[in-house]
Amino acid sequence: MLAITELHVSYGAIGALQGLTLKVERGSIVTLIGANGAGKTTTLRTISGIVKATSGTITFDGEDVTNIAPHKIVARGLAHSPEGRMVFANLSVMENLRMGAYLRRDKSEIAASLDFVFAMFPRLKERLKQTAGTLSGGEQQMLAIGRALMGKPKCLMLDEPSLGIAPILVQTIFEKIVEINRSLGLTILLVEQNANLALEISHYGYVLETGRILLQDTSAALRENTAIQAAYLGG
Amino acid sequence: MIEFLQQLINGLAQGSIYALIALGYTMVFGVLRFINFAHGDVFMLGAFAGLYTAPSLLKLCGGGPSFPGAAAVLLAAMLICAVIGILIEKLCYRPLRDRPRLTVLITAIGVSLFLENAGQYAFGADPQSFPEIITDRALEIPESWGALSALTLTVGQLLVFGVTFFLLIGLRAIVRHTRTGMAMRALSFNPVAASLMGVNTDVVISFTFGLGSALAGAAGILTSIQQPSIDPLMGINIGLKAFVAAVLGGIGNIPGAALGGILIGLLEALVVGYINPSYRDAIVFGVLILILLVKPSGLLGKPEREKV
Ligand SMILES: Nc1ncnc2c1ncn2[C@@H]1O[C@H](COP(=O)(O)OP(=O)(O)OP(=O)(O)O)[C@@H](O)[C@H]1O
Ligand SMILES: [Mg+2]
Questions:
Q1: Which CATH class is domain B2-126+150-294?
Q2: In chain A, which residues have their Cβ closer than 8 Å to the Cβ of B196?
Q3: Class at the top of the CATH hierarchy for domain A2-232
Q4: Closest-CA residue in chain A for B179?
Q5: What's the predicted TM-score (pTM) here?
Q6: Residue B221: HSE in the Cβ half-sphere, 13 Å Cα cutoff
Q7: Where are the domains of chain B?
Q8: Shortest CA distance to B63 belongs to which of B55, B71, B51?
Q9: Could you tell me if A103 lies within 8 Å of chain B, comparing CB atoms?
Q10: What is the pLDDT of residues A148-164, one digit of tens each?
Q11: Does A99 touch chain B if contact means CB atoms closer than 8 Å?
């Protein structure tokens, strides 16, 4: 579904990605884990066209999408819930969800997506008219994911959905991610620092270190790997 | 009392003009975070667009000054200014999108100087008289209104109130209830997130320039109806005052710009009426300094939070 080959990205002189190669199979949850500054966010931002690649290719759904504009990537069915949530704090919850469906025209299908999002995150439905900036961190994360789903994507990229959220809510959100993957058959690329949780819910994992893939395997195998346990799973 | 009411009417008329122009400053600031210093000159171009289109448009609408004729001139000026605004953004600002904001700001000053000088070259530097597109006369206020009948209210002022009111309502509807308006608000909060929703940010930015410039064009016509002497430098002072109005209301805040414009207009009228007309500009710019000191985010603006 999504394949990245030999991707290089730099910010000025800093090489943030140095020949990254990875693959996301249709219908799976793939996770990308790594320490601070490893280049996880940069990877997602480059796939979305926010950051330009200096070399390498990104193919999505069989087509080359390297370095095309962000809004065109979205139009092809790739949604991205960014690091730090980036909900539109000045817009209502409902308007945020409508922004997620910005490129869609079919009213009845949009309504169906809205129902799905409400089924996943009932709390959003209770707060439709509320300004998104007044939501709690956890609610904003739900909104960010719900907003991304409103585009009815073929593939969803999530950047650290656990960031700055109470552990109990993190658990709920991860359960929802699994549920979204199962019920919609939606392909998910999950970036996480919380490697424990990420490897628990994903099928396949990549470990990123300073812009390169250090290791890749099924998530089950990565969880058993002693080196990974020592470095990323807290023992 | 009558004297005071009269100043309020005059102030409200001038304030409406400032409000229309201030909206352009504030909307562009909202989406691009810079002050388009050429905006006052777009207002000037609106007046000249009226000057040049009026003869044929009036003829089309049956000859002399008339409401349909004035409406046609107004619409034409708005349309021409919208196109000019979109072109300015596309040619001058878009190539600098990723440059430091100071670069764009300096470019805006350059564009402003260019328009003023090109205007003097193309239209001539001397003031020209704006054609009469509607007969501006004082309205008869019936004796039965008592003391109020001493007030002077002109057709031009009434037109300013009506058109401004209508445009403000229309703008509010666009910004709050249309898909593009929603994208504008989203973009002004976070352009990256907006593009991740599929918003083509270039299109929305063009739209914003078009909208703001159309309002400046309308202001150009409304001003020229009341003061029918126009020249290529007429946008400098009014543009600066409208900028002060936008800052007063809270730059980036749309209702704030409208409110700021009206307040500056009223303030000016009161200074002219009760203090000394020659202090007018000094006091308006004094207000700017005061806001920057006391409440830099303006009356309705929220303090800009640092993005994390
Ligand atoms: N806009 C930028 N300008 C310059 N350097 C940047 C920029 N964004 C990221 N970097 C650098 O690129 C490298 C990769 O950053 P990135 O944000 O992709 O890491 P990450 O794996 O997402 O980290 P975290 O887990 O902290 O979110 C880091 O060294 C970072 O300092
Ligand atoms: Mg990151």
A1: mainly alpha
A2: 48, 50, 70, 74, 79-80, 82, 86
A3: alpha beta
A4: A102
A5: 0.93
A6: 31
A7: 2-126+150-294
A8: B55
A9: yes
A10: 999 999 999 999 999 98
A11: yes
